[in-house]
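the two lines:
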Amino acid sequence: MRNRLPDGGRIDRTRRISFTFNGRSLSGFHGDTLASALLANGIRLTARSFKYHRPRGIVGSGVEEPGTLVELEGRDASANRPATTVPLRDGLKARSVNCWPSPAFDLGAMTQIAARFLPAGFYYKTFKWPNWHLYEPSIRRAAGLAGAPAAPPEGRFEARFAHADLLVVGAGPAGLRAALEAGRDGARVMLVDEGIEPGGSLLNRRLEVDGKPALDWVAETVSELAALPNVTHLQDATAWAYREHNYLMVNESSPGHGLLERSWRIRAARVILATGAIERTLVFGNNDRPGVMLASAAQAYVNRYAVTPGRRAVIFTNNSSAYAVAADLAAAGITVAAIIDSRAEVPQETREFVPGIEILPAHVVTRARGHRRLRVVEVAPIQGGPTRRIQCDLLAQSGGWNPAVHLWSQSRGTLRYDEKIASFLPDAPVQSVRAIGAAAGDLTLPGEAPYKVQPLWRVEAAKGKAFLDIQNDVTVDDVHLALREGYGNVEHVKRYTTGGMGIDQGKTGNINIIGTVALQQGARMEEVGTTTFRSPYTPVSFGAIAGQRDGPVTLPYRHTPLTDWNKARGAVMYEAGARWQRPGYFPRPDESFQDSVNREARVVREGVGIYDGSPLGTFEIKGRDVGRFLDHLYTNIMSGLQPGRGRYGLMLTDDGLIFDDGVVLRLSEHRWIVSASTGHAAAVQSHMEELAQTQFPDWQIFLTDVTSQWANATVCGPKAREVMMALGGDIDLTRKALPFMGFADGTVAGLPARVVRVSFTGELSFEINVAPRHLPELWEKIMAAGASHGIQPVGSEANHVLRVEKAFLSLAHEVDGTVDPHDLGLGWAMSKKKADYIGKRSIALRRAGGAVRRELVGFLPEPDRQVPEGAPLTPGGKTRATEGLVTACVWSVVQDRWIGLALLENGASQHGEMAHVRVKDEVLPVRITAPIHYDPEGERLRA
Amino acid sequence: MSYDVAITDGPVRAIFDLKGPQAALADWAGDTLPGFPDAPNRRVREDGKTLAHIGPDHWLLIADLTREEALTDALKPADAPPEISIVRVSDVYAWVRITGPDAAHVTATGCPLDLETFPDDGADFTEFFTQKALITRGGHGFEVAIDRSYAPWITEMLARITP
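prediction for all of em together
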């Protein structure tokens, strides 16, 4: 570590750490970042740039870093991490991104030869012939960042909620004071800070607070905060998003409990933003050379990490803050060759910081020279004049400071441009939030020279590429080009040039883009304005956002009480609507998928099967006005239903399109049961609640979701009644006593049950509804009672076959949001007696227009083969506008062939004719039939 | 290091969903119900029965499952007048109890409510791992009732926090 100072810094010299960078073994100390350790080892060339593959070094010391992104390997695997934010740990493996084979010799640097042909937006105008996609892969490879790791990191993430009276963001001097005062007053305080340790800018400077060394004050303050039970202090925790109602996202690294990261979602009554300020770059020729560094970063490396980032330094500034940096560098033994100050006047109190160091007022650096490292800077009077060359290996630059207003802006608070500090400041809050300290524009700490700045958005006499956005390789010329091409709005400039769209979000350079636009347009800064500050403030891992929901489990899923039974029988389980995990089929050894489905469908058609219908949406509705409410909701009349009977009905949208179908049971005069499709149950419930609460608030309607109160086993097939009889119970199961669409309460197999005669298979069916706690017992009893009849469990795949044979409609197949009842041959379900119901008038208006409609048809593929569901039907199979689509195609065990359903323009009048399904490289002829392929009279289900 | 917490599944309980004007429910139920809570999102516990005020004109009556039949007989849901609704929903909910020193932290991984200020007699519908849930204090921690069909999902989420 040749550039390590012999003493000082906040590193632990007793804890030596080994790491590798680009395959080279190196060492550092506990307390180092990867960036400080690289500098300590004398490594200056650390990266190649995004677009031009220019040599890059370390520019900053924190989240603002635009120069060096690294890819971490092994257990830390992650991509595009700023080297300045990677804590050093033993065994860390890092490598530079966007270069091959190494930053020192990068083949991608060839692009610099063609740089003049690659201006901003070149990809909008070139590589168009014959096809952009021909070039896209190689362009992305040449101008890309690190790829995502091949595997997720080892470890767990966690998300949790928290609440606070006061959330303080930032544990610098202002934030610590605010947290302490509120904590002493007894408020429930959360203090979060992105740094590895608290102190903010005090960590990097040699200052005093309250008459004592600043870091002693920090330690005492933190200690007092830790003793307050009402204060929660999270360090290494970045507030990265500010949402509505003071809801903030905070990402905490290594929080313990074996966690990699914890994502906090904090709701605070008040928020204080003490987020500090970010130093900005200056814009001159080759301002990206390794060795050109933010002045505050150079100060941090010297004071905090005891690292000398160079031996001979030049300071280039437009403000007073860099003078303390010069003093600190000199104190560390670095030769400060000169201070180049673009201001005409340098205040005396500032000069006093740097006795003996040459100051060149009204001068600018026009160009940095050197290729892989800085060797010389060229300096000239700002008004023009002879150029002077100064040898140096470090240029510490300060273009002034921007209050970190990112979170303020995310909170939708407004910003105003302040001429005095030449930056945008928090103005009017929208939420209960206040900015303090540097974040509010107070940029002078006790013991520092008063902050004075004269903006310098770019050096007019710059020679060579002058970068506004170092990370995205956006130059002054790029912005000028965007303006010439008419992209005058700063948001358009951003999109055209990609300025500010890198991982660093332009923290150091966006203001220079705004300034460059203002200069070019002759506008004031506030007239140009800022681009939108968006979350995340800093990159956030997907794992932190997902929390516990990683791996294969990212969305909630639901189970019926039979999941264990199904899995034990080898069922293939998957989601079948509304997150329900259901058995798709029950394969037997050496049985194919199709064999399983055929066997299960056949057992229902020829014998008896059983399936779990529990996920069906079920609601109990009570009240005097339920009858007329349901009449308004459904297309047919429900109010006339007799207690003890059920009726099938359709619900429409206001547009007169089918929304859902289901069965309504009338339990008594004022009690009803409404069933809804599994996939639409939640939507149907919301629909009913909205109607009841907003359109009919005076009607007496009580709606209760009982979907999970009732589970059901449905016994179906020609032998279903025999199995039911064998089960025993007190319900008369004869056709006369319990006809189709009837129901009865009683006991089945000794269990309290409601038996409903509905059918979703087209066969005789008994839906036995019981409490879920009883379903496993009922199921076993049914299997035992049906064993002599060959009963078998049936999955959703066979159910799909059975419903297609009967042309029973299915959500997302035939009911695709475009069809009305007439289209599906269900005009009979639309009451002509009711004055009105939802969707009635819309259908009438649409039908009066006489437009062609897609109507439900059946089809038989000729030749007999499977046709893909969703495939389009086109006239003659030609490449023309579609006239319909295939909604389903299954192997029918009763027809012993492939059959299907489709929506076809004027399909009802085309039975017997041929239509054509167009698939890739093929046309499949199908013969159009009536939709119902089996038992069109419905005799079997009424048996 | 994992959290110092115990997570246990609770048994099925007798639960009745009650809707309608408070006076009408009180008239119908008589002394079957505990006293009504004074405020929304509060509960009253009497004689082994809990009455939770969970919404406008909306309560849940909760008791041990052994009392389900007796309560059904007393409340007579099928015979209740039209101005009130009484529906047995015992099987709708699965119960999870989270207790121990870290109970609040573990519960907060799924629940957005402010658990530090959650009252002892609180009974609040909220979300738990994105699903609708009723939360109450129980033992040295919290009890969460969620739709039974989501119980495996909730169990898995909690297991991921406390491996």
